[in-house]
């Protein structure tokens, strides 16, 4: 009995917490109506938003088709002027972008060289020193080998 009464109190408390106005009586019906109302509102909102987006999409498509219909004869008439002008503008833009990129690269190289020559330790300086040492070692080996062969040729 006590278990049964505890369950009833818990269900009454749960319905009271979920917004039921009548305590334990009829709270289950309110809980069922609220999710249905919420889902209906969500569906109405989604339909309204989707419909308005669809209308805007249609208007945009119609405007694009009308603009293309009006602009096509103009593009055909002016194409001997517009195509070379577009090519020239594209080449100019590519030239400026390339020039700017190479200028930035040159400035970064000069900055690295300045840091290296003034004794600061820029990134990659260790690799440069290692490559310089390897190159000097190979040059010394080649010089000794050439000297050895010259001695062999002179002695023969």
TrEMBL record:
<keyword id="KW-0472">Membrane</keyword>
<feature type="transmembrane region" description="Helical">
    <location>
        <begin position="54"/>
        <end position="79"/>
    </location>
</feature>
<dbReference type="GO" id="GO:0048608">
    <property type="term" value="P:reproductive structure development"/>
</dbReference>
<comment type="similarity">
    <text>Belongs to the oleosin family.</text>
</comment>
<keyword id="KW-0007">Acetylation</keyword>
<protein>
    <recommendedName>
        <fullName>Oleosin</fullName>
    </recommendedName>
</protein>
<keyword id="KW-0812">Transmembrane</keyword>
<dbReference type="GO" id="GO:0016020">
    <property type="term" value="C:membrane"/>
</dbReference>
<comment type="function">
    <text>May have a structural role to stabilize the lipid body during desiccation of the seed by preventing coalescence of the oil. Probably interacts with both lipid and phospholipid moieties of lipid bodies. May also provide recognition signals for specific lipase anchorage in lipolysis during seedling growth.</text>
</comment>
<dbReference type="InterPro" id="IPR000136">
    <property type="entry name" value="Oleosin"/>
</dbReference>
<feature type="transmembrane region" description="Helical">
    <location>
        <begin position="85"/>
        <end position="110"/>
    </location>
</feature>
<dbReference type="GO" id="GO:0012511">
    <property type="term" value="C:monolayer-surrounded lipid storage body"/>
</dbReference>
<keyword id="KW-1133">Transmembrane helix</keyword>
<dbReference type="Pfam" id="PF01277">
    <property type="entry name" value="Oleosin"/>
</dbReference>
<keyword id="KW-0551">Lipid droplet</keyword>
<dbReference type="GO" id="GO:0009791">
    <property type="term" value="P:post-embryonic development"/>
</dbReference>
<dbReference type="GO" id="GO:0019915">
    <property type="term" value="P:lipid storage"/>
</dbReference>
